[in-house]
Amino acid sequence: MTTVDRALDHAHDDHHDVPYLTGKGGPIATVWDWMTTVDHKKIGVMYLFTVLFMFFLGGVAALMLRIELFEPTRQTAAGITGAAFAGGEGSSVGGVGKFYNTVMTLHGAIMVFMFIVPGIPASLGNFFLPLQLGAKDVAFPRLNLASWYVYVFGSFFGVYVILTGGIDTGWTFYTPYSTSTEGQPQVVAMILAVFILGFSSIFTGLNFIVTVHKLRAPGMGWFDMPLFIWAIYATSIIQVLATPVIGVTFLLMLFERLFQIGIFDPGLGGDPVLYQHFFWFYSHPVVYVMILPAMGIISEVLAVHSRKRLFGYRAIAFSSLAIAAVSFLVWGHHMFTSQGELAATIFSALTFLVAIPTAVKVFNWIATLYKGSIALTTPMLYALQFLFLFSIGGLTGLPLGALSTDLHLHDSYFVVAHFHYVMFGGTVIAFLAGIHHWWPKMFGRMYNEFWAKIASGLVFVGFNVTFFTQFFLGTQGMPRRYASYVDEFTTLHQISTVGSFVLALGFVVHLFVFIHSLIVGERAGQNPWGGLTLEWETDPIPLEHNFRHEPIVKHGPYDFESVVPPGCDEKDFPLPPQDEVRTVH
Amino acid sequence: MAHAPAEHAYDPKDPHGFHAHDHDHGHVIVSWQTLLAVLVALLILTALTIFQAQFEIHADKTWGWDIPGWVNIVLAMVIATIKGSLVVLFFMQLWYDKGVNTVLFLFTIFAVWLFLMFTMIDLSGRSTIVQWRGGEVVAGGSGVGIKREGFGGSALHVTVRENYIAEQGYTQEEFDKKLAEKHASHTRKPHGNSKDHSRVPTGLTPGLFSTGPWAELAEDEHTGKGKSDH
Amino acid sequence: MATIDTRASGLTKQEPLWKRYVPGHHWRTQDDEFDAAKIGIWLFLATEVLLFSGMFCAYAVFRMLYPEAIAAGSGYLDWRFGGINTVVLLISSFTIAMAIRNVQLNQQKWATINLSITWLCAAGFLAIKFIFEYGPKWAEGKRIGNLFSYPYASTDHEHIWWSIYYMATGVHAAHVLIGMGLIAWLIYRQRKGAYGPTHYTMMEGVGLYWHIVDLVWIFLFPLLYLVH
């Protein structure tokens, strides 16, 4: 994409022409600059680190769950056996269960509300959406910063409440347990924390929609946008339309706990299934808030690292919107056992619609790889892992979407395995692909490719060992959310626990790779992968105002067969003989 | 995806040609006559919807007409929708505005519709296939689960009433008389018909109240059998 | 969000604030910024509509489950106060639309008058609500949730009706209160000359917000006061 000097390019103030990572004099001035910045790149980086910190907390909780499940807990005459965390109030099996439930709530609430929902859009999306659009910033920069502060406040408040209050409702806060459980006034505070987090989500989504509408670079039509942007755009629509409903749900719940208004509590005439409808009207679409940006990253990574035009650009773009639309039609499949059969039948039929746009994406990605010049870099490895793991996750969703099989599998470890394959095998793996893909652009340094690949291998093996076993556990009848189990499940649980530690080891290696890169990593060039989207036209570390000149888009984001990547030598990325190029529009 | 170079003259202030043909969009000045006319229409419609509701009560009292409940709600909602549309189109200027805002608003309404529709499909059709699912939580419905000093165990309004009678030193007859007076002063009596009631409130979800403070209530009730009259 | 930058515009301090307004650095034109702000406001309004949809959903469900309680509850409300409040809100919606028109035509004095009427209508709405509706009802014991203590209840589930009533109208009243704050801010800024024919984004935004508050009431009024 070419840049043109134009008179309109107003006189930059000199201080805007430094890389955005450059400090502001003293350390205090620099910190103050970051804390008050409205620069989408800085906010994106701040989001990245806070989100990863939350992922760390949630991961520790997950490991604690797996340690507890290493052996079944038993009450014997001599005391409790098999309980890893029997101290404190855990002097009885019930105490162990209570502790387990608290840790499980911690894991669920952190991972869902504080890591995976804001995860990709608020960090990578914030950083790269304006860059890929060729904009100087998002539409409402101050709202963007507000979003981060609201997120940080809500997150720390929430974590504090769970840790001090021992909330054991699970992340779904199902009524009547959550509205009537004794001795848990902290549920009110926790609901408030999630309510607050909702605002951050809405701010981000609203900002991105307006940015896409109004700040595209000259020459960039809707179908010249990179597919990452299409995915983020679809995500933002869901965020704006679904999040307010969780707001009103938790508002009603708050009053239910404070004044017993009797809307959700059956002991007061309310309907607990109504709560589930309210809750899943938000929380099912939000599943697609989690996965859609991941799909966007995969589209980018596959195209760039196989140096091939994405197959079926429009199909992938529209399938993102289709997923967003369908996401509002299928929430009832979380409640097959609690709702009436009529609604369940309708929801089950609609659920299978999701498979269509999702399959469109997967087939297009695979077709993209065909005859591509595939470079097995770390991001590409993760993208390939995504295709494999996400397909397993998607296909295991079918027996859960079918009414008859769901009655058997409902609330079993099969469900746990299924959504971890989608959420971890899908979203987290794609997040890792995205972080590695854009790491050089964000921090101007390369990472150690060898060790990153080792880490990605550990993550892949660890993840599969942890969760594939849980499919077996689930089909054999192991229910989810239990602190103990019958002896027959011991072997499978132990394999799963071992796997979780391999997975954790993979992340530790990743952490060292990142720290190593930040300190002594090799300087990255402007465009190490030869990408064609606009973010690769910026300086190695983007300037505070992003582009030296306002970019004008002259080619599509994936015209690899006809365009030499910006900032690259033609020798490194040779074009194919032009008479052999067949362009498909 | 070939990228066609911009055909029109490049206008740096308007790179997408957004404003090539619609210079006034976004800055419409609506005439005061239009605004006033809309206000008058809204006031007339408000009067109409009030009249409609009052007429029904009047007709019931005076002539004994039993207008089905759905007429009332359909008319009220139609009028409210017309009023709402007037506000959105003219006060909020969607009539003159860019298409994107209209699309956005329609999507919002669509999402609201989905939310209400699917929830109602479930809650109203719960007994369509399996009868016992249509039962209602009778014991809880009257608020026995309330946590309040001296409450719980029996229905909320019953406890409230008993406390009140004891407090005021009324006899039952005195209270009944007062009760009748209270409700005589209300302009309208509850519509007893069940034409628009999606499910008849009888029956009890089996086992739901077999434990806890309302256990004995559940024993009096018919448990287990589907009592839905559908 | 007016960032006033006299340096770049080259206009002197004698000019009114709205003439000196300079759009944010990332915008190409002031029109772009205005359009974007408007899309942003509409998205925000979408979230507001969905927030209230929860209340409407709860209403619909409990109307279906406990029709007698809803009918009885509706009978306790006096349509006259609801009707007056509807008229008050409709008028305020009209005046804020007129205020925007005034600003567009640089009729600053009329804009102040119309905004003030809007603010007074909002205050009147809340006054009627609290003095003639919430106050007496609360005193009688027609209260929310477990505070309910009205001895003359005629149906089993009246406490749920009052819960829905207070939640729906309460959240709406909170929006009116926020709107009053915003309109007061508008009056203050408008007196300072911040809004004029070329820059009135904030006015437009608050106006749209105020209309949506009106819109919600247009549906709440028949559902709570008239339908039975």
Q: In the CATH scheme, what's the topology name of chain A?
A: Cytochrome C Oxidase, Chain A
* Apparent shape of chain A: globular
Main CATH class of chain A:
Mainly Alpha
Biggest β-sheet description of chain C:
none
Largest interface: B-C, 88 and 71 residues
C-alpha Rg of chain A (nearest Å): 24 Å
| Number of alpha- plus pi-helical segments of chain A | 18
| DSSP strand content of chain A | under 5%
% residues in beta strands of chain C = under 5%
Radius of gyration of chain C: 21 Å
What percent of residues of chain C adopt helix (DSSP H or I)? over 70%
The number of strands of chain A is 4
Helix residue percentage of chain A: 55-70%
Low-confidence runs of at least 5 consecutive residues of chain C? 1-8
What is the residue-mean pLDDT of chain A, rounded to a whole number?
90
Question: Can you write the helix and strand succession of chain A as a string?
Answer: EHHEEHHHHHHHHHHHHHHHHE
**Unreliably modeled segments of chain A:** 1-15
**Structure class of chain A:** mainly alpha
Can you count the beta strands of chain C? Answer: 0
What features would you describe in this structure?
The complex is a heterotrimer of chains A (about 575), B (about 230) and C (about 230). Chain A is mainly alpha-helical and about 575 residues long. Chain A has a single domain (about 10-580), classed as Up-down Bundle (Cytochrome C Oxidase, Chain A). Chain A has 18 helices and four strands. In chain A, the strands form two sheets. A two-stranded antiparallel ribbon of chain A has the order 1-4. With about 230 residues, chain B is an all-alpha fold. In chain B, helix 1 (about 30-65) packs antiparallel against helix 2 (about 70-90). Chain C has helices spanning about 5-10, 15-20, 30-65, 65-75, 80-105, 110-140, 160-190, 200-225. In chain C, helix 3 crosses helix 4, helix 5 (about 80-105) runs antiparallel to helix 8 and helix 6 (about 110-140) packs antiparallel against helix 7. Chain C is elongated, with a radius of gyration of 21 Å. The N and C termini of chain C lie far apart (about 45 Å). The relative contact order of chain C is 0.17. Chains in contact: A-B, A-C, B-C. At the A-B interface, helix 8, helix 9 and helix 11 of A face helix 3 of B.
